[in-house]
Amino acid sequence: MGVSSTVPLLLRAARGEKVDRPPVWMMRQAGRYMKAYRDLREKYPSFRERSEIPEVAIEVSLQPWRAFQPDGVILFSDIVTPLPGMGIDMDIKEGKGPIIFSPIRTQQQVDELHPLDPETALPFIRQILGALRQEVGSASTVLGFVGAPWTLAAYAVEGKGSKTYSIIKNMAFSDSNILHQLLDKLAESIAVYIRYQIDCGAQVVQMFDSWAGQLSPQDYDIFALPYQKKVFELVKRTHPQTPLILLVTGSAGLLERMATSGADILTIDWTVDMADARRRLGNNVKVQGNLDPGVLFGSKQFIRERILDTVRKAGNWGHILNLGHGVLPETPEENVAFFFETAKNLHVPV
Ligand code: CP3
């Protein structure tokens, strides 16, 4: 057997090697649409328990692996998980998402934050990633993930999810000095956290800047992009071989800017036609995506057509097949199974 056969498909595609079919995984592939997850949630009602008790988080991460054998197995965790390790206490509430107990609004609060020491703050991450690597071997790629500085700052400042981002935008457009200090501190700790995930076994890491699409392109260049760059630069300095993926939700107006972030792969959401994304980005930028998660409510034939359409438009190089955002909790598991089965049986003409 050649060397390449021991390197899993997704990792090979992420590195830019030519592969026989696009690798496939699904954002939020572990979670509420799975009965196995809902059953386990009865036993462990707190999200922090489910994601921070190693045995439970390992089990949840592996539920979709056992059910569908995706080409990528993502760590079950959350983007806010490292925040308590910097002095930002939080909880994750059912149906609401993250809640920050004392939202960061003042200079003093920013001064009191401390750099993340993942080995002491997040020892469970080592156990989870190690176990995932051991379990999937070379049959799948283990993905780690983090939140980007702007998106984590949005939670830290707003105190919870928001529709308008009024508080952080008030800070950004009236007294941006405090916000820039916060973003910078977050960037340093996120870089440390990505390195730690890689050292613990993550083979590819995705950074979610979920709320950066709420910024105008001009403000994306001020509050999101420089800090994405900082994180990627710091990680590449020590871990140049690990592919890094960037996701921004609502990124249609930002694609060309995202391509300057230093990410190896860009996640494309479904508001952009994949053929347009390829045209706009050129053929040297690797892409991931980009089916509307709602497609999985359609018939099998419809799902199949949309997979084929996306794969055709993405071409036969540098594409990781995925939805354009997380799978929706109401999605029938049977359709998720069909999505993976269809994707794994594709033969892309070379
Ligand atoms: O892909 C995977 O399987 C890993 C799972 C994962 C979770 N959170 C688990 C989770 C990932 C990749 C995340 C990242 C995350 N968390 C993001 C970035 C991705 C994105 O959607 O843009 C964001 C913005 C968050 C913050 C957050 N945490 C939200 C918005 C929610 C959902 C609130 C709700 O209940 O609708 C959470 C909670 C959360 N994180 C859930 C899961 C499965 C749902 C709660 C539960 O299952 O009990």
UniProtKB/TrEMBL annotation:
Domain called Uroporphyrinogen decarboxylase (URO-D): residue spans: 23-32, 143-159
Species in which this protein is naturally found: Cylindrospermopsis raciborskii CS-505
Protein name according to UniProt: Uroporphyrinogen decarboxylase
Keyword Cytoplasm: yes
Summary of the function given for this chain in its UniProt record: Catalyzes the decarboxylation of four acetate groups of uroporphyrinogen-III to yield coproporphyrinogen-III.
Record's catalysed reaction(s): uroporphyrinogen III + 4 H(+) = coproporphyrinogen III + 4 CO2
Site note Transition state stabilizer, residues: 78
EC number: 4.1.1.37
Keywords annotated in UniProt: Cytoplasm, Decarboxylase, Lyase, Porphyrin biosynthesis
Top EC class, one word: lyase
